[in-house]
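Hey everyone, long-time lurker, first post.

I ran two proteins through the pipeline my lab uses and got sequence/structure pairs for each. Pasting them in order. The first:
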Amino acid sequence: MAYPIRKEIMLKSASKIEDKGNQWPRNEKGRAVYSSELFGENVFSFKQMARSLPKSTFSNFLKQRRGKSKLDQITADAIAHAARVWAMDRGATHFTHWFQPQTGTTAEKHDAFLVMVNTYMQGGDESFALDALSGSQLLQSEPDASSFPTGGMRSTFEARGYTIWDTSSPMFIQEGPNGTMVLYIPSVFISYNGEALDEKTILLRSTEVISKATKEFLEILEPHHRVGQVTSTIGLEQEFFLVDRGMYTLRNDLKITGRTLVGKLPPRHQQLEDHYFGKIPARVLKTLSDVEMDALKLGIPLKTRHNEASPAQFEIAPVFEEASLAVDHNLLTMDLLHKAAYRNGLKVLYHSKPFKGVNGSGKHVNWSLSTDRGENLLDPTVRPENNYRFLLMLMAVLKGIYDYASLLRVAIATSGSEHRLGAAEAPPAITSIFLGDQLSEVLNALEERRPLKNFSVPQFQSIRVGGTLVDLKVTPLPTIPRDLADRNRTSPVAFTGDKLEFRALGANQSPSFFVAAINAAVSAALKEITADLKAALGSKPKLTAEDKLSVIRKYINITRPIRFEGDSYSSSWVETAASRGLFNAPDCPSSYLSLKTHKIKTLLTYTLRIFTPSELESRFHILNERYTNDLLIESNTLYSIVSQQILPAICSYRSKLSSSALALMSISADFFTEKLIIDRISPTLRKLVEANDRLAAHISEVEAEHKSGTAESAAEKARRLLYFDLLEVRSHCDLLESMTPDVDWPMPSYAEILLTF
């Protein structure tokens, strides 16, 4: 019986004595090593390369990274040798090209440094072993391309693909088996014909596009202010659940799909709002500390850790980094969390909505643009009303998101997001931007050609646009500066001081495609604004303030529909958004159709060349196939759970009640209670059997469509049938759980999973 097993697991978890595990290192004098001293010790950084390579070789490498030359074989061989020696000195025995296929995770194939040298062909008389890594092996490897998602670009028999070293991201080492290490070489993944089969290639193309578009914009706006490079920078807040691994092993739905397909809420979950920022449970704190130590050694600048709103939910966040490196580090951090959780008897869950009725998990993308001079182009400074560069950049962001909201919608669309978006903790699928009262007043005043208003708010606070203070009139409390914008937790996109926070990405998604979509949208808008500035410049030596203001006013007016300062959860917002003409795709298959529109295809393949036509078509098919597969896996899992666990358990419980009633009847005792419970259970049990049979029939329909139809038609049918079947079957299961004793319920409850800390 399941209950005694669950009880035993819970008792073991409650009495678990933490092992010492990773201990914070100390130096030879016994002093604890500072975090900054650990930072990057397992990274073959550019500083380490400079130490290991001849000056001319390192100089050639830097020229290649800046696009001023190709990486020649001699330079590649020298770097490969230096990297191997550095890695092997630290215990590495293997190397791997580490890449990001379109699966949402990373992939790797390990090869040993060991090679056999045979001298017979050269007239010798022996063979011997050497350790080696050649420049050719560093530059590329050959995984099987047919076994990864290709969206029809590659047939099964066309297996060859290539991973190519991404020189913008440093190599690093990670722990392997038996105390050894593995050298990781960050890479992109392409087909035999050169098509991108991964997430990273697209992201890298988009970073070059937005750098070029921004530089052209700045050259017109500030011709005296030369910028060599502009990079998109991001900070990725990662939310997740940590649950006891023993409880996890007893839930087939969690193991197979990453989310619970059945389960009723306990009487107490997050409604007291006492978990958010609360004391971190000891076993969780140990896990997060382990992650932070490993992350520091890998050069991942984790900054924040805290409890999230739901029980058993947590968040970690790093400081800002260049976009491609930040994505690498985010995916690495997710992997480190898996390993640390396992060592501490926990399981990490990244699904967007692992538990119904409590907060889901997102991956907030804090996005900005920075120059190689260290300037943040979205910094409003003290007086944003006079900062025309900032205002024009803000207009580019607003215009890009307004024009290409459908592309951003595609980038967040997964089967899991359909359960999270629009819930109490997540933004709706309709994209809008929150700027806050102060910035909104700046834009309104500029458009209306009037002075700025001075606001006043209740009692002890006063607001002045262009830098404000909060004075609480309590002597021991210092006066603090107020940000230019509040934080609207209902908005999909919010300006938060000097960056845009995008809150709709799912916790288990790779950020690469989403960041590429942002870069593409803003690049397109920057091109439009640059063209308008050129037209305003004409033959004049430089732009006047009025030239800039006229362009700013134009885009303030154009982008007014995308700005929304209210509650994005309200039902009236859907109607308001529709009246403004804002894009709204209610489900994943309908959102994916945006990739087929002329507007998106032209932008991504012709105007910006971030995708080739075949790569974009492939992306469309992969997204639809993944959606269909997700729903089929969930449906088959739920059908088996109901058939093999829940129905037998309920029937067994009903049988016990019947036996008890017969025994009572045989001695002329009252058996009203037993009969009442049976009468309550039986109708729901019958509905569950009917709904489960309907689910099985629809599974067959979708599988047939998936096999013989198009990816698009299969995804549409899966959404129309399976999505709602899953909800119906679950509703009957959850009602039966509320009527069944714990001892007879065949799997751990929400209370057992979420409230074990």
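...and the second, right after it:
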Amino acid sequence: MATAGPAVAADLSTTFDAVTPGFPAPGWTAAGDATVQDIAGTADRSLRLRDTSTTAPVTATASFGTTSSTVVAGFRLRASQTTATVGVHLDGASGHSVTVAMSAAGRLYSYDGATRVDLGAYSPHRWYDIRVVARPGTATADVHIDGERRAARLGFRTSATALGRLQAGVAVADTGTAYLDDVRTTVETTPAGWPQLGTVAPRTAAQIGTSNLLVGAETLDRDYTDHSAYAPYLGRLGATGVRLQGGWAKTEKTKGVYDWTWLDRIVNDATSRGVEPWMQLSYGNGVYAGGGGSGLGGQIPTSAEALAAWDAWVTAMVRRYGDRITEWEIWNEPNLAGVPAATYADFFARTAARVRAEQPGSVIYGPGEAGIDVPYTQDFLVRLSGQGKAHLLDGISYHPYNPNPDDVWTYQQVDKIRALIDRYAPGATLRQGENGAPSRPGSFGALGDLDWTELSQAKWFLRRLTHDLGQGISTTAFSISDLHYPSKINSKGLLQTNTDKSIRYAKPSYYGVQTLASVIDGTVKALPGHSFTTDSTTPLTVQGFAKRDTGRQIVGVWNGTTTPGDSTTRTPVRLTLPSGNFADPVYVDVRTGAVFDIPAADWSVSGGTHTFRNVPVYDSPVLIADRSAIRL
């Protein structure tokens, strides 16, 4: 099956950082005063559009070729006032087809055909992270602002079967200044002959309620990220839980004196957005001799004084947050720090007993191990069980990092952990507690030596999360935003950051995870080992799910044989599901959120066996889902 075309557009990616201030932006055509400038008081170098005339235009235009395929355009926009009209447009041959603008009355807006659509208020001197998904095939567009879909299926302003350029400008009749930055366009091909129905409707964590999909917000205890910067994106992502690190050393800087201000703000904000914190009790505290390390790889407390202080802090923590937090994790990656399993088991039991004493219904995880360390897990469980304390453990958490998220070895080790749980701690569960991939080369931390891009990162996240969810494993995306370690940035965030840790924009991985969270929620159950056959010459990964109330299915499929790449070329395959349950199947590309009808000619059913033909598959998850399971 061919894909829709032509798709001759080249991806446009412009940050303006390498342009000398005061000069025009290479590759852009300017009318009036449109030059690259540094913004006073910030680290931004951006394209400035300064209009001092009420009769002459100020615009900047860049071409990305001509395509009739879907165009995804991301950019940041900032106005220096709320009294001028500033617009960014995607243009076809007849003019502006899609517009996102700031009005002279302080409002963001777009158009549905000729009708203006209000998108909310805006403030001066503030960047807005804007994403437009424009579909010439249906002449419709969606608009996202700061990670939130503000409008869907807006009709084009002017008729266009293809798009080819992006233009930004200040209205001729107004005077004012605006800045444009991080302009990114990509082209997404669509299945030929499969009508697009729309896109998956994002839902907030509060709207979703419960799910097995969580997100990481670690290192706030060391100030490597800025909670206030990413907070608006947290609930919008749709993950219903967030992993936090308790930060003993940050809370108790003076012996016996707790300052909870920093953590109160974070916990209260998360819960207000419908996101339940999963609190990790770590690290150590240097104000006590033998207090352990206060960061990654640090030792657990060892001296009598430090252990007593640890006990007191844990008790105070549970008492303070027990009405908002029920899930706890004890320490982070003790095996990485070289803490013997037996030593950690004793420390776990000591700490878990204090948590349980304060909160009888608490859910407690350990050991939060680096990788999937089967021998360490076994030694830990043997020690815990031998002391009669396995009842204190509700789950094993682990942190696997592999270039290929579908690596067979990974899930073989997971099965070994399951067997150990069944033997030594029956009833305990599994949680993938920390896992992610960078979005650029040279990143700090695991997998940082590989040549990542934002596209390959998005695929990696979606494959690992979908695979875990399909196995019934609670799973965490690490991390909500890039992390600023002292020596280097860890770019595993779903959000790109500035040098001051403020949010620059939501990466493609953010929107992909947002789609997955909105589909695979608590109303869906996993169908591990979902059977299938295929004519694909490349082995496929298939994970099955079903709605709990109706049994209607959602089946994820992708090429999981290699590390994700940067190609979006799809191969048509036949997929047969002997135990399928579909009344009206649709096709969903999780990475883009696009939903397509599967024509009757491309699927058939005989008894419970469903056969789908010409299914476009690549190295990122796509779903065959009953239409009743997808919200548009």
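Reply from user beta_strand_b:
Welcome! Quick read of the second one: The two ends are 25 Å apart (CA to CA). DSSP finds ten helices and 38 strands in the chain.
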